């Protein structure tokens, strides 16, 4: 009897041991499987980000190339000078007054057949909600209402400071949203899940509303409408994509021209003006600083608060504004007279290389936390003033080329172009922003955090800087802040803490690279200023996919984009490979992969 009991216990122990080993083996296999999926996900993410940042670098290089040509081109014959004179004397710099702008949209008739939303000012909450419903049903807002809304938006933005001050005392909570990039589904989902803006529910949208997505116009109309309805509860910050030069590359310009073929140019010109007036940052309870990109070791909030932000038309370069038509004409005559002495050689020894991009803020000192910059101003040429006029003419010719490429409807009447900030100055001259002011804006719109100490050039994007935890801590202590909220970077989970949880990145465009590639997120702040983060996926398809299916789908999209990139540079790659294939074996190696990454 005792022997049978002992045998049963022995077998039970063996079974338990076998079950434990089996469970451990299954767990080990599962962890390996998950680790492989995670490695695939990270590699896919690296491919997407590398391609995205390479595109930004390409734009900076292209801008450098054209800037170099415009800085150094000098007419070599009387025919060239006559051609340039004709260009300069064209009435292309006429200024529109505010009343003329107002009458522009008032002269546009809305046909009786129009079934989309109609707006009347001042706007009411019902108008804003009607816009959401109309855009959800794929309806389009008429050009008259678009221009009217933009005109009213600018009137409101002009009254705002560079840094908005917001308090949690007047609302239950403040919701901060990151990049949307033209993805209307994400904006609608945020309002559905978190509630529409109201006096009890404030919002801060932290820039990059446009580009890449297909519904950038609709997002702007909704955001501007709610800002006019709730001016004290709804706030917008400028991002690096609220920039007409960036819009040319990343799709927003093309979207506007496709949707509004007749009035597209006027809408784009007005939007350029509106973007210049967007506030640069928001401060909650004087403790939480919200800005789009980041900070640097020279960020000065007091200086940022005093900058005439409307003059920062584009962060791609520090642009000089002409003073008046009369002064411009005098300069043209002087240039024509000086150029009659003969051509000036432009290929001087000190200008043999392309100037560095204004976004790569100059050279850097040896210290970790120090950064100095210089903005290239071109060579010391006698015809410098003429070069600047040539630059203006080349820009006009580039605009004409863009129109011929399909950005302007055939037969549309050519409208006189004007600078965005010219209409804002009724009298007197407009000075250009100083180098220091321009650097301040570039840094807060383009910078990214890094794990290392110090501050260095953001060579990946080509603009702004990488700032370390010491730079963050220095700024927080200087202005008695608790933490920073920024956007500007897509994160797999929609958010990310860094710098000892003193910097929070919020990205609100889910499925940014591909369906299933990332979540979107927004953060809610109450009176205690404790961040409460909400994640979401706006696309219903992602909820039906397994983890393996989701990663496989994103991986396939990344590899397809990489193949397209390699094919576009196949000639250069083959040439480079042959240089380093001494044995002529024609096989890939780790060394060839290194040159491929370069």
TrEMBL record:
EC number: 3.1.3.16
One protein family per Pfam: Metallophos
Feature: compositional bias, Basic and acidic residues: 322-333
Cofactor(s) essential for the protein: Mn(2+)
PROSITE patterns: SER_THR_PHOSPHATASE (PS00125)
Top-level EC class: hydrolase
This protein's name: Serine/threonine-protein phosphatase
Taxonomic source organism: Pongo abelii (Sumatran orangutan)
Organism phylogeny: Eukaryota, Metazoa, Chordata, Craniata, Vertebrata
């Amino acid at each position: 009897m005792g022997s049978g009991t002992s045998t049963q216990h022995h077998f039970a122990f063996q079974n338990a041991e076998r079950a434990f080993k089996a469970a451990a083996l299954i767990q080990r296999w599962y962890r390996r499987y998950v680790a492989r999926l995670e490695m695939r996900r990270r590699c896919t993410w690296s491919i997407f980000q590398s391609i995205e940042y390479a595109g930004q670098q390409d734009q900076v290089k292209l801008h450098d190339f054209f800037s170099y040509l415009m800085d150094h081109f000098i007419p070599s014959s009387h025919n060239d000078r006559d051609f340039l004179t004709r260009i300069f004397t064209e009435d292309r710099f006429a200024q529109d007054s505010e009343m003329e702008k107002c009458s522009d949209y008032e002269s546009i008739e809305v046909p009786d057949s129009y079934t989309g939303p109609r707006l009347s000012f001042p706007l009411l909450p019902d108008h804003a909600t009607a816009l959401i419903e109309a855009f959800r049903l794929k309806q389009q807002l008429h050009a008259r209402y678009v221009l009217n809304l933009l005109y009213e938006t600018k009137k409101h933005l002009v009254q705002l400071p560079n840094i908005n001050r917001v308090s949690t005392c007047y609302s239950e909570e403040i919701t901060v949203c990151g990049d949307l990039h033209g993805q209307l589904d994400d904006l609608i989902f945020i309002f559905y899940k978190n509630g529409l803006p109201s006096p009890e529910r404030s919002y801060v949208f932290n820039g990059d509303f446009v580009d890449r997505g297909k519904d950038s116009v609709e997002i702007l109309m909704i955001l501007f409408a709610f800002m006019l309805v709730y001016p004290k509860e709804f706030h917008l910050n400028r991002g690096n994509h609220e920039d007409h030069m960036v819009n040319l590359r990343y799709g927003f310009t093309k979207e506007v021209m496709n949707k509004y073929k007749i009035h597209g140019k006027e809408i784009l010109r007005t939007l350029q003006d509106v973007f210049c007036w967007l506030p640069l940052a928001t401060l909650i309870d004087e403790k939480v600083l919200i800005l789009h990109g980041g900070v640097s070791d020279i960020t000065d909030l007091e200086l940022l608060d005093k900058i005439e932000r409307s003059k920062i038309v584009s962060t791609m370069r520090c642009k000089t504004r002409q003073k008046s038509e009369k002064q411009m004409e005098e300069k043209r005559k002087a240039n024509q007279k000086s150029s009659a002495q003969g051509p000036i050689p432009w290929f001087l020894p000190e200008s043999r290389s392309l100037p560095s991009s204004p976004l790569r803020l100059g050279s850097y000192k040896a210290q970790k936390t120090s950064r100095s910059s210089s903005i290239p101003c071109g060579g010391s040429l006698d015809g410098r003033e003429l070069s600047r006029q040539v630059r203006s003419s080349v820009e006009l010719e580039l605009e004409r080329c863009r129109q011929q490429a399909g950005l302007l409807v055939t037969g549309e009447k050519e409208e006189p172009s004007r600078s965005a900030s010219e209409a804002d100055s009724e009298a007197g001259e407009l000075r250009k922003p100083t180098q220091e002011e321009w650097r301040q804006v570039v840094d807060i719109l383009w910078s990214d955090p890094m794990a290392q100490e110090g501050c260095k050039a953001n060579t990946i994007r080509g603009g702004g800087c990488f700032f370390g935890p010491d730079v963050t801590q220095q700024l927080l202590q200087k202005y008695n802040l608790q933490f920073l909220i920024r956007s500007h970077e897509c994160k797999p989970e929609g958010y990310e803490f860094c710098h000892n949880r003193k910097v929070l990145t919020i990205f609100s465009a889910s499925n940014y690279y591909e369906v299933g590639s990332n979540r979107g997120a927004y953060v809610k702040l109450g009176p205690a200023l404790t961040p409460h983060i909400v994640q979401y996926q706006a696309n219903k398809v992602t909820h039906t996919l397994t983890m393996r299916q989701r990663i496989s789908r994103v991986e396939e999209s990344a590899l397809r984009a990489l193949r397209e990139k390699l094919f576009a540079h196949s000639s250069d790659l083959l040439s480079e490979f042959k240089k380093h294939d001494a044995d002529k074996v024609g096989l890939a190696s780790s060394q060839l992969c290194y040159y491929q990454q370069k």
